[in-house]
């Protein structure tokens, strides 16, 4: 009988061309070491890729949607197509990653906000959580989220303080990834220390944001173990308990039923 490992990756990009040379090996490692992973989309094409991976692997789930750096590609007909697919496919578990990115500024702020809100409204209409990307735009992101009280989901790679996210913690989880292992990440360490463990989910953002001791190399979904270990150290908790609780959190937010 398959024994659960209580170790999951709630946010990665398996379709990224970084994995063109070793994707099959990465998938083998996922199947061996993790309970499940969630492939996160950035546009229409990557949404289809995420769905294909999910359809072909029991341990993989998918999101659909347009990243703020790709919001110029937003196509309402294509998004409706993806939503329609999701209605008949329980492997599609969220809309994301969506949000605001004021670092790259590929599109004007108002265009980003409009695209963010459109996808939020689709998520609420279809009872799906969202996965939020926010970079140098936390204040505006939280303002928008607070204006939709029925909205739920994950703050991916959350960059702020515990106090800033507290008003939405009743319906949002905080994604913690490889940056928590960085020695100089004092804000992240303090946030994790204060954050209730039942509001944290574990992620890698592979192939990006690789944790210590592999920093500088492409990330790998199985490196979530290093994230868990660091969280356990910061919160003075048993590693297995951190694994168990954060895995249950991931199941709850995404509506995934794996026993």
What would the keywords be for this entry?
single chain; 259 residues; alpha/beta; eight-stranded parallel β-sheet; 40% helix; globular
How would you sum up this structure, described in words?
- The chain is globular.
- It has helices at residues 23-33, 44-56, 76-87, 109-125, 138-146, 162-165, 186-194, 224-235, 239-254, and strands at 8-12, 36-39, 60-64, 92-101, 130-135, 153-155, 172-176, 200-202.
- It contains nine helices and eight strands.
- The longest helix is centred in the middle third of the chain and has 17 residues, at 109-125.
- 40% of the residues lie in helices and 16% in strands.
- With 259 residues, it is an alpha/beta fold.
Concise synopsis of the structure shown:
This protein is an alpha/beta fold. It has helices spanning 23-33, 44-56, 76-87, 109-125, 138-146, 162-165, 186-194, 224-235, 239-254, and strands spanning 8-12, 36-39, 60-64, 92-101, 130-135, 153-155, 172-176, 200-202.
């Amino acid at each position: 009988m398959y024994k659960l490992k209580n170790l999951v990756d709630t946010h990665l990009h398996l379709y990224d061309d970084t994995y063109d040379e070793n994707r099959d090996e990465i998938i083998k490692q996922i199947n061996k070491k993790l309970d499940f992973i969630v492939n996160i989309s950035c546009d229409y094409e990557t949404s289809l890729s995420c769905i294909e991976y999910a359809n072909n692997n029991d341990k993989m789930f998918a999101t659909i949607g347009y990243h703020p750096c790709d919001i110029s590609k937003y196509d309402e007909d294509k998004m409706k197509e993806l939503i329609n697919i999701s209605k008949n496919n329980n492997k599609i578990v969220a809309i994301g990653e969506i949000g605001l990115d004021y670092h790259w500024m590929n599109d004007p702020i108002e265009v980003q906000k409009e695209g963010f809100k459109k996808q939020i409204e689709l998520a609420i209409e279809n009872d799906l959580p969202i996965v939020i990307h926010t970079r140098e735009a936390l204040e505006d992101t939280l303002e928008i989220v607070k204006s939709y009280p029925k909205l739920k989901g994950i703050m991916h790679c959350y960059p702020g303080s515990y106090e800033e996210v507290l008003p939405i913690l009743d319906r949002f989880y905080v994604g913690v990834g490889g940056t928590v292992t960085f020695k100089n990440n004092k804000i992240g360490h303090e946030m994790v220390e204060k954050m209730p463990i039942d509001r944290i989910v574990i992620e890698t953002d592979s192939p990006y944001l690789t944790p210590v001791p592999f920093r500088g190399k492409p990330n790998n979904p199985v490196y979530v173990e290093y994230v868990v270990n660091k969280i356990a150290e910061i919160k003075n908790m048993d590693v297995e308990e951190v694994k168990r609780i954060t895995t249950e959190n991931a199941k709850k937010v995404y509506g995934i039923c794996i026993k």
